[in-house]
Amino acid sequence: xxxxxxxxxxxxxxxxxxxxxxSSPVDIIALAQRIDGLTIVYxxxxxxxxxxxIKSQNGNNVIAINSAMTLGRQRxxxxxxxxxLYYDDSMISVCAKKIDSGKEIERGADMFASYFLMPxxxxxxxxxxxxxxxxxxxxxxxxxxxxxxxxGVSHQAAVYRLLHTPYLNDEEANNLLNLSxxxxxxxxxxSSDLYCPSAEAKRYKxxxxxxxxxxxxxxxxxxxxxxHEELMLDAFRSDLVYGDxxxxxxxxx
Length: 253
Ligand SMILES: [Zn+2]
What we know:
Elements: H1 4-17, H2 28-33, E1 38-43, E2 49-54, E3 61-66, H3 71-87, E4 92-96, H4 104-117, H5 120-133, H6 141-151, H7 155-162, H8 170-177, H9 182-187, E5 205-208, H10 209-219, H11 225-234, H12 238-242
Parallel strand pairs: 1-3
Antiparallel strand pairs: 1-5, 2-3, 2-4
Helix pairs in contact: 1-4, 3-4, 6-7, 10-11
The protein binds zinc ion.
């Protein structure tokens, strides 16, 4: 049986361990890049998978995120993979896209991700404030969009977080899950980035430990420039070999 209180505590402790406070929205992509020994791979993993976590005995771990999912869903998936990285004994975890489905450990990892990205006290404060502004004192699509934009998660992740709380009943949640969000978010003045997949040029990328390890081997003369290039190309980092990133040259800002 899933122990929700325990998952909430684990999420709070990991936020603290990683240097985050207990309530603010987290830039989880930047946070992942600060974890020692972690390589992050963005790759289109198809329609059914959200991500993977592959651990090794020597502390060189890999998290893969399905870059064909929306940015909000990718952020949720990263928090889900944190559960496997820190609290799951399995060395390899392959994770389904559908939230709150499958084995107990997968559903637990989803709840952990919810608590990690949307801590209870901060969520309650925001939800209370928003529902008071609504005439019927319930959360409708507009309020849900403000919540998911504040915490930087997908619409589905925000709805599942509030399901089984006094804020959303089953019928309200079902209705919300079937609504198109992007145009409403734009009409409220938000960017639609959260609801879009990674740009084509960023769907295949590797960041973190693998890249820095290869750079170190090269700079210490332990691998040739040809081998270094090969390693970068294997990691979809042709931009580091040919400088062909679509973002143009360096801009000092
Ligand atoms: Zn999982």
